[in-house]
Amino acid sequence: MDTSRAPAGSSAVAEEARGIPNCLLGCVATVVQDGFSSNHVEVNMLNRPFPILGFQIDVGRRLERPATLYRALEGMSDAGYNVCMLYLEDAYAYPRHPRIGRPNAYSVAAMQEAHAICERQGIDLFPCIPALGHCSYITQKDGYAKYDEGRDTGQLTGTVSPSFPETYELLTELFEDWCNYIPGSYLHVGLDESPAMGRWAEQRGREVDHTRMFADHCNRLNSIVKGLGRRMLVWGDMFYYYPGAIELIDKDIIVVDWYYYSFPVTPRVEAFNFTDIDLTGQFKSVGVEVWGAPSIWPNLPIGDIADRWQNVADWTRYGRERGMDGLLITDWENSWGFCEMSAWLFRTFGKLLISEASEKSTREELTRQLREELATRTGAPNLAELVDDLLALGNHHLTGRADRTFFSMPLASVAVANRETVCREHWNAVSEIDALHLPARPAPKANLLRELERSRRMIELAWKQGALVPEFARRVVAVARGGDDSSLAAEMRRLADETEAFGAAYQTLWDEERYGDEDHPTRPWGERSARELREWADVLEMRPATEHPLCDQPRLEAIFHCKHPSLPVAVTTVRWEDGGTQATGRAMINFASAYACPDKEWTEYPCLVLERRELPSEIVIEVNNYGQIGIGEVCVVWRGQRHIYRRVSAEGASVEIEGDIAWLGPVGATPADPTTRPDADRAVYRLI
Fold first, then answer.
1. Please, what is the Cα angle at 330 between 329 and 335, to 5 degrees?
2. What CATH number should be reported for the domain whose range is 51-359?
3. How far, in Å, CA of 602 to CA of 596, rounded?
4. N or C: which end of the chain has fewer CB within 10 A?
5. Where are the domains of the chain?
6. Entry pTM
């Protein structure tokens, strides 16, 4: 055994583990080192697909109350896990830097209790304390802007600068503030998504070797972390930009290679237009330990669970082929769901991974394990149909969200974006899901069931609102011919009441699980949506529907196509005859795993509500990233009529014309390419 790669204090383990296959050494090391009986882990632990099987909870963006976090940690070893990472940022009250910790940040005592819960199960708890990019939690705090790459410019980057000696003094103290109080074997320092690295030096005319700077930063941090008796972990994505750093970093650093979509061969890197890059293979070839990182990605009311399992299964298959050392299943962002929902998926996926089926698990096996775990966590055994419905709901999750933010979109935009992607028949079939399935719940109701209720209801209300608006737009023509619009106004008022009440109920559960001063946007979304619906209803009852602003407000609609894996970004500019303009800014068309698969094509229907009540003269669509989009029909809908705009020009290095479709943006990319290109492909459309 290579003891230089073992956690601190594990040399005795190596001696006792002689003759044990390499694939089991990590399992035995955990058991012996932490003093736990192997009887507790014999069935689950020794069937892990890799020596390390871990899960990550993002408390930096989603701060749970301590009791909520503790509940989620209990029983994780039964699903085969032996490490747990908490993504911290400012969610921890750093003793020497109290201004960095946020309000309600976890105290040292709270983290010691979390460690004790994990330790009893043979789970090694460790933090992720970002130490390059994602450091706004440091540099935006009073007195800490001096560590930012953008200091003295008035534009903070959220990246701490390796150019400043004091940066390392600060990071050492932050690391010590954890390691001096909480035992463990690892410390993750982040280092992902850090394009601003070196900017301070560049702005002063200095020549920067980014590859050397990144490698030196890794090695300097590694020296600090090793001095604290820990193994250092880093995210792998910056090595796409600086592949030369692979040879330069210390070989006892652990690289966590992340990718959150399904993939048939190797991970397809989203920053490079989903180019296949075998990063794990490159690291293994030079002797660096690698953990793969899929994600349960729960930042939708109900995510596509089957798709999330496919991401885990693909990493398991790929990792076995490459001799990967570990798997860390991640949970990211300020999700619509709650910690118990994430824990449900963590436990389900872990138990599938330690089963004989592992990555070959079928949809039926996934469903069975979800049902079994749901019954275990809720005490309600008769919820089989609920799992079926949740799987179907996830498959029809909301799309067409600008920059992945649903709450900021007007209802009219949601309606157009979703009218072709939501299965109406399915929604009708499950609209009474609470009445059908949840009466079997125990009393008091299990937290997981309460969370599932709220999330399912969130999707239903959003869909009802989205369906109502185009339905209204279609009916106004009939109303103008003598129809009655009072029933539609009443429907809008009922939905407004439901939406407002739901937002308040969601916040109530949020306050129980998290903190009242960290409001989830669901409540203001419910209040804003209800207000808008009531205003429309008022207008309907006061004047003919043809005069309603929704009918009189032009909206731009387009048909976008994709035939290659991509996260396309389009910038649309609308121009009027008098020179006035309206632009969308950068609008990411979608963010769903299905769109990153090479064998799937898709069509999307983005919409822009226009500010002026007149038809524009010209519409310009630009693509300046590395994703390819096909632009089909472009029209403006106004006063019940569709006004078609014809393409008059298309220019750019990557433009291709295929019938009525103008393809903008390149298909491929290389590891040296940034996400945004210096040039753009452009198509111009004018009113026929």
1. 140
2. 3.20.20.80
3. 10
4. C
5. 51-359, 555-653+681-687
6. 0.81
